[in-house]
Amino acid sequence: MSLADDLAAVERGGHMVPSKAAGVDGDGEPRRTGTMWTASAHIITAVIGSGVLSLAWGVAQLGWVAGPAVMLLFGAVIYCCSVLLVECYRTGDPYTGQRNRTYMDAVRANLGGTKVRLCGVLQFANFFGVCVGITIASSISMLYSKPKPFL
Question: What Pfam families does the record tag this protein with (predicted)?
Answer without folding.
Answer: Aa_trans (PF01490)
